[in-house]
Design a protein that fits this description.
Blueprint (H helix, E strand, L loop, with lengths): L1 H17 L21 E7 L2 E9 L2 E6 L10 H4 L6 E7 L15 H14 L6 E5 L1 H12 L6 E5 L21 H11 L7 H8 L7 H13 L13 E6 L7 H10 L4 E5 L5 H4 L1 H13 L4
Parallel strand pairs: 3-4, 3-5, 5-6, 6-7, 7-8
Antiparallel strand pairs: 1-2, 2-4
Helix pairs in contact: 3-4, 5-6
Length: 295
Amino acid sequence: MTIVISLLLALIFNTMACAPRASDRMDAVGAATDGTHTPLRRSAVVNGVQLSYLDTGTGQPVIFVHGVVTTSNIFPAYLNAYSPKFRGIAVDLRGYGDSDKPPTGFTIKNFSEDLIALADHLNIGRPVWVGVSMGGMILQQLALDHPDRVRALVLVSTTDGAMILDKDLPSIGRSRDYHEVSKQIIVESFPPHTAPSLYQPLLDRIPTWNGTVLREALTSMAQANVHGKLSAIQVPTLVVVGAKDDVATPEIARGIQSQIAGARLVQFDTGHFMMAEDPERFRSVLGEFLEQPLR
């Protein structure tokens, strides 16, 4: 009897030890590509703000950064796609998703500094950075301010100058409902006649930010300009653009490529969100880039 009780106690304690902590809870954001791992939702306090992020896989870190009307939940299919060589991390920027929403401070510069602080918290020195739309604008600023913290860059559907997505920014969250502004930006980012089911997951995330977040972030994007400075970036860089994108256009993408020595440009037959329109090719293109020697 004593032996049986001992075995039962050992089983209980082993089960408890293997259970995920509350801070490492599983988040229902979609299974990884191998069907066996789901990203863990974790959090960290950096620069006085609690940031939420998804984390999965092993190997060299790749940190994904979302845009102005999306969250980390656009990335789960890619986070474990390149393991065991690459570990995938996707951040909810301050104000978005499960991250804290302070009263103000939603600028490209602050987002960039938050990312460096998060990398410090995770003991990550030089990750590969992947940024989509506003995320790409943030990463250009990060690469210019912290060149020693970048192993490689992937700039997706982005600009090196102002990106203006709304013509009446001061009214957002005040006389105009941020939900409607966000919805309009998302829908207009896809080609006409796109099936609503393709962008509905993006619309579902709108309640995870607010009017102040959207207004300040869009204002920062409208004031951004690093054109002519990108020649200082000296790491492997992939520029990705949609042929039907009328905001972050192919012409702008070629301009970014021309400033960064050795940068590669890949064009998709899509609008702004090729990750939603052509996810399999995006996964393949990103994987091919990651497989090249990254110094």
